[in-house]
Amino acid sequence: xxxxxxxxxxxxxxxxxxxxxxxxxxxxxxxxxxxxxxxxxxxxxxxxxxxxxxxxxxxxxxxxxxxxxxxxxxxxxxxxxxxxxxxxxxxxxxxxxxxxxxxxxxxxxxxxxxxxxxxxxxxxxxxxxxxxxxxxxxxxxxxxxxxxxxxxxxxxxxxxxxxxxxxxxxxxxxxxxxxxxxxxxxxxxxxxxxxxxxxxxxxxxxxxxxxxxxxxxxxxxxxxxxxxxxxxxxxxxxxxxxxxxxxxxxxxxxxxxxxxxxxxxxxxxxxxxxxxxxxxxxxxxxxxxxxxxxxxxxxxxxxxxxxxxxxxxxxxxxxxxxxxxxxxxxxxxxxxxxxxxxxxxxxxxxxxxxxxxxxxxxxxxxxxxxxxxxxxxxxxxxxxxxxxxxxxxxxxxxxxxxxxxxxxxxxxxxxxxxxxxxxxxxxxxxxxxxxxxxxxxxxxxxxxxxxxxxxxxxxxxxxxxxxxxxxxxxxxxxxxxxxxxxxxxxxxxxxxxxxxxxxxxxxxxxxxxxxxxxxxxxxxxxxxxxxxxxxxxxxxxxxxxxxxxxxxxxxxxxxxxxxxxxxxxxxxxxxxxxxxxxxxxx
Amino acid sequence: xxxxxxxxxxxxxxxxxxxxxxxxxxxxxxxxxxxxxxxxxxxxxxxxxxxxxxxxxxxxxxxxxxxxxxxxxxxxxxxxxxxxxxxxxxxxxxxxxxxxxxxxxxxxxxxxxxxxxxxxxxxxxxxxxxxxxxxxxxxxxxxxxxxxxxxxxxxxxxxxxxxxxxxxxxxxxxxxxxxxxxxxxxxxxxxxxxxxxxxxxxxxxxxxxxxxxxxxxxxxxxxxxxxxxxxxxxxxxxxxxxxxxxxxxxxxxxxxxxxxxxxxxxxxxxxxxxxxxxxxxxxxxxxxxxxxxxxxxxxxxx
Lengths: 586, 302
Description:
The complex is a heterodimer of chains A (586) and B (302).
Chain A: H1 13-18, H2 23-53, H3 62-66, H4 76-112, H5 120-142, H6 167-196, H7 209-240, H8 258-292, H9 299-313, H10 328-340, H11 342-356, H12 365-388, H13 390-396, H14 400-430, H15 436-462, H16 482-498, H17 500-512, H18 576-585
Helix pairs in contact in A: 2-4, 2-5, 2-16, 4-6, 4-7, 4-14, 5-6, 6-7, 7-8, 7-9, 8-9, 8-11, 8-12, 8-14, 9-11, 11-12, 12-14, 12-15, 14-15, 15-16, 15-17
Chain B: H1 22-41, H2 53-58, H3 71-102, H4 117-150, E1 161-168, E2 171-176, E3 189-192, E4 194-198, E5 203-209, E6 214-218, E7 223-227, E8 233-237, E9 243-249, E10 262-267, H5 269-286
Parallel strand pairs in B: 1-5, 4-10
Antiparallel strand pairs in B: 1-2, 2-3, 5-8, 6-7, 6-9, 9-10
Helix pairs in contact in B: 3-4
């Protein structure tokens, strides 16, 4: 472990709050950015849902503000832009900043006992690259001809000049590339920090599972985001310089292969879904233990399952491409490999359930959200089984069944997991408590609608409705599904407006909330052993780690049910032999 | 830290919420009222903008009618998967519910890291039995179905009806060989968005695209396949009963993706022969040897 200096605290406003190298400030910057884009992506989803419930009817309120040119109606082209924007924004500009940029930055140094990231300046660069990326993305909304419309997957040849000419799509491709660049900068930092800056005594298996999740995410990011980057660069060459990497067909003589992009995209794209969910798995594995007041069941098995999933994630991407006429042998291989993922996933679930079993559950707001993650991710993970299977996928591929499935896994689960994290670290980050009642209301107004929305999407997809469809009434066999789509839409509006409980709670409590104690949740990980919010250099003395992160209800400890990671077992329990004989006698 | 005394350990179950604000309750009450109004309004009369429970009930989710020889295979696997995962999901929910209600703050937590050999073996047994029973059955069934049906493309000796499909923004072009059994000849049948097939004969498609990627989707045959520019993909199916059904595009292909709707008409062999004869005559009249664009067909290889 390298020597860590205490850097003097910056004094100017700019260095302290804008161009800060402090991981805690950068984390907050990322969280604010992610929340703003979450609102933006959510608004787009609401407009999509409005169109599907009321085809061709002007959007109330938002239509007047945003859709001037069409008189408030979501036109087919705007509709394609909306679902493209919704996907890209939610994945690259909402989830990634909140979970990876925000909590990755916040938790990794604090939970491993480091004073900052190993490369603080690179960390700052990562955030500001993301800002540039966001600006390019927002610029794409303003250029004539409109923003990207080729789907977030940007499949060529639709995403080349053949399908979507214009500056908007080019800007989005560049924005995605820059977002990837920022992610890789962050990933390099996270990986190195975890390897180099763990506090003395902290082995890999003494790290909180949150850090495991974030660290594995960073490794996947560093390995696979560059693959997407290469694809996007080639795509932008095709768009800007007239190369033919992915362009082909009757309109072009010679040319490349659009399928090549799909390979590049999904080599990145499948690990990406684990990139998004791994931090949440880590957080949930920790929080279930913390609020059940019980050690995480099978800690090593959980950590190693996450490692196995990371490895498998690299070799299953073909299941996104079953319909591209790949060789039968290849298709079947991908099917088998995909199904093998159910082994580590089941291990995670068994361990989560056995962690809360025989516990002493405190149903605080972060715990409710964590249980919510287990619930919706259970639904999402299990429905993945249908799609892994080629005979069923032939029918279900590109239907709303897929939409429901991946929203349950990487939207609902990550959404709830992000809020679990925000509520859990809220006292530490902002040094204030949130309002508990509003938090619980937020939970119930999130979990109920989110389940109804995405489960009904599964049913609509089962009935055959294609995804990215502008109007259900354009197909005779789908006309009967309009009431179900209206049910989804109105429930989604409830979900969206229900977030007012979060917004009001957050805005009030960040600035005006009751001052938080240092360790309101009574847990033993290192970040809770220092003041809230932590001082600039985090730890006055770098702690020496003695225990794992989940020492709850240890019979050796008297008077409290938790034990800090750097805490020597209090002397009054030094009559340990006595305790042991008592235990043995029981 | 003087103004924030460390919270003393409250007795279990008595962790009070000390940060209540009346505003929160007013907001919550208003919102609950709004949601309740929404829920109740579903009971009322239906308007085209707003469904009633009755309308939602009438739109009960169901697969479109299956008119293919192999569609029931996927359906069967689907129903099997549903049973398996429902069981697992109910067990999971039961454990969460039980733990959340019975193992509350009054319950003494057990100090167990779950790292003993016994715990690991139990986890392994649960996991592997699910792998072998659920995934294993599914995989076995799928391999059989893929080998016998989905990947078992018709051979020349099966005398399939061969059709070439060229997708474009936003339509489907179909090309039949006509009597001579060769493509790109004057007796080809070329149709737009209209596909006719006979009952009981395998249909073998090769698909390509003129511009962007499309996906040829037959909900009533439980199958689909992508159509790529510059490449060929293939698909086969066989109808079991006559009728008129829809062809959809499943891959986002531009703003008018939703309009890319075709129609598949399944006829009895006799009626199909009549249709074919009439079409050949019509197409021969229309044939123009100089119209290169119209000769997009290619030589068929099995």
